[in-house]
From TrEMBL:
Record key words, sorted: Membrane, Signal, Transmembrane, Transmembrane helix
Transmembrane segment boundaries: 32-54
Signal sequence range: 1-22
Domain of life: Bacteria
Name assigned to this protein: CcmD family protein
UniProt organism field: Hymenobacter coccineus
Keyword Membrane listed: yes
Length: 110
């Protein structure tokens, strides 16, 4: 009984001491401050990802819109401006010397 009472009083004394120390302001950052920094960091990360996604979707939609409008690309404009003999020679050179470039349309879900 005596040891139980001694341990109980010691525990209660330590508990009240820790509670009193916890109520005094300290110089270390409080958990609320640390939590707010974490929340603001995550909010900034989410905002950055949203901006990146919006930019990607916008550029893909713009490329798709231009392709649907039938606007000629810079290479097609240059080929149309060249003389017919140069066009035939350029096509022969590009098909033999350069590898074929395949473009893949990106799907835009908006």
């Amino acid at each position: 009984m005596l040891t139980l009472r001694a341990f109980s009083l010691t525990f209660l004394g330590l508990l009240t001491g820790f509670m009193a120390a916890a109520q005094t302001p300290g110089t270390a950052p409080t958990p609320i401050t640390l939590l707010s920094w974490v929340v603001w960091f995550l909010a900034g990360l989410v905002l950055l990802m949203a901006v990146m996604t919006a930019g990607s979707v916008t550029s893909a939609a713009q490329r798709r819109y231009e392709a649907e409008q039938g606007q000629p690309t810079a290479a097609e404009v240059a080929m149309a401006a060249a003389a017919p003999i140069e066009v035939a020679a350029a096509q022969a050179v590009t098909t033999e010397a350069a590898p074929q470039v395949v473009t893949i349309e990106e799907a835009v879900y908006a």
